[in-house]
Each structure stands twice: as structure tokens, then as C-alpha cells.
Automatic annotation (TrEMBL):
Coiled coil ranges: 174-201
Top-level taxonomy: Eukaryota, Viridiplantae, Streptophyta, Embryophyta, Tracheophyta
UniProt record, GO biological process: mitochondrial lysyl-tRNA aminoacylation
Protein name in UniProt: Aminoacyl-transfer RNA synthetases class-II family profile domain-containing protein
InterPro entries referenced in this protein's UniProt entry, alphabetically: Aa-tRNA-synt_II, aa-tRNA-synth_II, aa-tRNA-synth_II/BPL/LPL, Lys-tRNA-synth_II_C
Sequence segments annotated as region (Disordered): 1-20
Every Aminoacyl-transfer RNA synthetases class-II family profile domain range: 66-399
Molecular functions per Gene Ontology: ATP binding; lysine-tRNA ligase activity; tRNA binding
PANTHER family assigned to the protein according to its UniProt record, in alphabetical order: LYSINE--TRNA LIGASE, MITOCHONDRIAL (PTHR42918:SF5), LYSYL-TRNA SYNTHETASE (PTHR42918)
N-terminal signal peptide: none
Source organism per UniProt: Corymbia citriodora subsp. variegata
Keyword ATP-binding among record annotations: yes
Length: 414
């Protein structure tokens, strides 16, 4: 006779003597007892955040989202392995964040007294060093950190997928992005019938009425500067002119637009993009040809249409949300130095970035050894999971929610 809590599969049965019994169809499985009565429903937001394990028991769809996330991770691995990329893991902790303009988390190490360390905000510079070393196509899926706010699509700790391919052009990167999303959508449609995944956990972005055939057509392309100029009915000033900052401030005044906080040149241009371009990106859309000042790590050239310096860059937006960023990497150490210097000038105005007023000389030295012409690509994995599961908040695709939930969970246990 078993004296521990057990689970059986079987059906009711009467013995030859007329006793009611359970006829087991497989050997019993030992389980652990619950010391609490499981609630029939649980809708209190505070309780959900404080006890995510109970939320998973009461709302099994939350488990299905995590299983879907695992399948999406598997597809990313399959896609890049199939394309000949080598998967690597690069440092999360270093002296200097690098790779993007954002406010990093800071810490110290007992072994390096007096040295400020940062959690990385992107793996980009590490991965490009590997390309200099001859690794060839490379990719990484892992965490990144930005000491910024929490909202429906942002969390200070998030997951990125970055991939780099020597001799890939911007056109190659955009075609790859379309292929990745279409093959992922096809794969998720195929697994909808699997027993361990609820049908409701997959948003079919190809045929469902909800999606209006989201991935059927080629993705739209909107050039940054011409799209804004068409919207406001006038030309933007020469973005390389020394007086361009004041000219844009005057433009905001003429259009009765509020200035963004710490309104340097990149922030002014970002604000115009958010107002006049991003709302047009309802279906999958590439915003292309960004002003060069918005992309310090990208190659740039003179646009034959606008005669402005623009980056060889594209961002993928769907329904007004950014999902992927890609560009042809700047591989000249001399041009990169100039772009770093310009970036430092903007940081001195807005107070953003890692607080480091020095140029990353180690990265420039690596470029001196020869980075081949390279296409670089990055995607927010959390947002991708949101897209394919229909979740509206980033916390809904994270096992323990956003940073607020994680910190609150620890504080409530004290």
C-alpha cells in the first residue's frame, strides 16, 4: 500500500466482491501534496505579482506562453545555425557598457577595487571583435540591460538576438528578416496541434482575420527624411550644418510641437520619427535611410534624393512597435572615431549613455586589424514573443514579470 501522495491514471471499477475501486492503467506516480486550497479564480493584480507560481496554476495559459517562448528560441537557433552562424556567449559584465546609447547599470567587483563595471546594454562590440578575429558568421541570444523605465514594451532586463555576417548588405539583412518571420510563423502554425500547446497561445500572423495576412506581402519601406518632409510639407534643414540644432528647434515651434527632453539633434529627429513615421507602420514596415547622426556604428553615405548624410540602416516596425534593427557596420577605424566623437558631444547635452567621456579605444584598435564589410542585425526577443502570442505587455512573456514584479516579489517575502 502506498503511504505517500500519489497520482493514478485509470477508471472506476467494481471488484468481484462488489467493492468500488480504481482500476489503474499505469503505475502510480509519486507527487507532492499542496498544503493550500487552490483558488478557483485569481484576478487580484497584487496577488498575481506576489505569487507567480499560483498564477501559473490558476491560469495555465501563462504556462503556454512560456512554452511558446521556448519554441521561438528554438526556431531562432535553428534559423541561424542553418544559415551557417556560430553561436557564442559574450561578457555581460565589463568596464564600460558599449554598443548602444543608453544608461547602464553600474556595479563594483571585490577583485577590482576602484574599477566601475557595467552590465552590458548590447553585445554588439564583442561580436564584431570576434569577426575581426576571423570567426565568420556569428550570433548570440542573451540578456541585455538598460537602466531605464518600465512600460508595456520596455523592461530594464530584456533578451536580444544579434547576428553578424561578413559581406552581407542591408538588402540581405532585410530579406533575412522577412524570411525569419515567415518561417517562424509557419513553424508555429505547424505546432498548434501539439498536445502540450494550447491553440490559443499562437497568434497566426498569416491567415487569421485578426492579422489580415500580416506576412503575405513584401514588407513596406519608408525612407526617414522624405517621409517626414511629405508629412510636414517642407524640407528638413541640412543636418550637417552647424546651425541645424536651432533650425530644428524653430521647426518644432512652427509646427507647434513640444520639444523632447534634453533636445539634442538625435532626440529631435527621433521625436519627428515617432510623430510622423511610426504611426504609418501598421503592417510590417522597414524605416530606412536614417540620418547618420542616429547611427554612430553604421556606415553612412550621401542620399542621392535628399543630399543628406544617411545611414545604411533599417528598422522593422509592426503596428507602431520596433522589433528589429539592422545596418551595414562601420568598419573604418578613422570614420568610427569621428562618429564616436560626435556621439560624445550629444551625450554631454542629454546626460545619457554610460557616463564615460572617453572613446572606446580598445574597439577602435580592434578595427585597425580589419573588420570585413559586415551586416549586423538585432532583434528584441521579448517583443517577438509578444507578437506571436498576442500578449500586450512585456511582463506577460517573462516568467516573473517586469523588474517591478521581481523586486516586489523579494520585498514582500521579508
Amino acid at each position: 500500500m502506498l503511504n505517500k501522495p500519489s497520482a493514478f491514471d485509470g477508471y472506476p471499477h467494481k471488484s468481484p466482491t462488489g467493492e468500488s475501486k480504481l482500476l489503474s492503467t499505469r503505475l502510480p506516480i509519486l507527487v507532492s501534496p499542496s498544503l493550500h486550497q487552490l483558488p478557483e479564480q485569481l484576478d487580484n493584480a497584487e496577488t498575481l505579482a506576489r505569487r507567480p507560481h499560483i498564477n501559473m496554476l490558476v491560469h495555465p495559459e501563462t504556462v503556454q506562453v512560456l512554452k511558446m517562448r521556448s519554441r521561438i528560441d528554438e526556431h531562432l537557433d535553428w534559423f541561424f545555425r542553418n544559415a551557417g552562424h556560430t553561436k557564442v556567449s559574450t561578457p555581460l559584465l565589463a568596464a564600460g557598457a558599449g554598443g548602444a546609447v543608453a544608461r547602464p547599470f553600474e556595479t563594483v567587483a571585490t577583485e577590482m577595487e576602484g574599477t566601475r563595471l557595467n552590465l552590458r546594454i548590447a553585445p554588439e562590440l564583442w561580436l564584431k571583435r570576434l569577426l575581426v578575429g576571423g570567426i565568420g558568421r556569428v550570433y548570440e541570444i542573451g540578456p541585455a540591460f538598460r537602466n531605464e523605465g518600465v512600460d508595456a514594451t520596455h523592461n530594464p532586463e530584456f533578451t536580444v538576438c544579434e547576428a553578424y555576417a561578413p559581406f552581407s548588405t542591408l538588402s540581405d539583412l532585410m530579406a533575412m528578416t522577412e524570411d525569419l518571420l515567415r518561417t517562424l510563423n509557419k513553424r508555429l502554425r505547424e505546432i498548434r496541434a501539439e498536445a502540450d500547446l494550447l491553440t490559443e497561445s499562437v497568434v497566426d500572423l498569416h491567415e487569421d482575420a485578426h492579422s489580415h495576412g500580416l506576412f503575405r506581402e513584401d514588407f513596406k519601406r519608408l525612407p526617414f527624411i522624405p517621409t517626414i518632409e511629405n508629412a510636414i510639407g517642407r524640407k528638413l534643414p541640412n543636418l550637417g550644418d552647424p546651425t541645424v540644432h536651432q533650425s530644428l528647434v524653430d521647426l518644432f515651434s512652427d509646427l507647434s510641437l513640444p520639444l523632447p527632453a534634453n533636445a539634442n539633434l538625435p532626440r529631435l529627429l527621433d521625436a519627428l520619427c515617432a510623430l510622423y513615421i511610426e504611426p504609418l507602420c501598421t503592417t510590417p514596415t522597414f524605416i530606412i535611410s536614417h540620418p547618420a547622426c542616429l547611427s554612430p556604428l553604421s556606415k553612412s553615405h550621401t542620399c542621392p534624393i535628399t543630399n543628406q548624410q544617411v545611414a545604411l540602416r533599417a528598422e522593422l516596425f509592426i503596428d507602431g512597435t520596433e522589433y528589429a534593427n539592422m545596418y551595414e557596420e562601420e568598419n573604418s577605424p578613422f570614420a568610427q572615431r569621428e562618429k564616436f566623437l560626435q556621439q560624445l558631444k550629444y551625450r554631454s547635452i542629454d546626460g545619457e549613455g554610460d557616463g564615460n567621456t572617453d572613446i572606446d579605444e580598445s574597439y577602435l584598435e580592434a578595427l585597425e586589424w580589419g573588420l570585413p564589410p559586415t551586416g549586423g542585425w538585432g532583434l528584441g526577443v521579448d517583443r517577438l514573443v509578444m507578437l506571436f502570442t498576442g500578449m500586450k505587455r512585456i511582463g506577460d512573456v517573462l516568467p516573473f514579470g517586469t523588474l517591478r514584479n521581481v523586486v516586489g516579489l523579494a520585498q514582500r517575502q521579508k
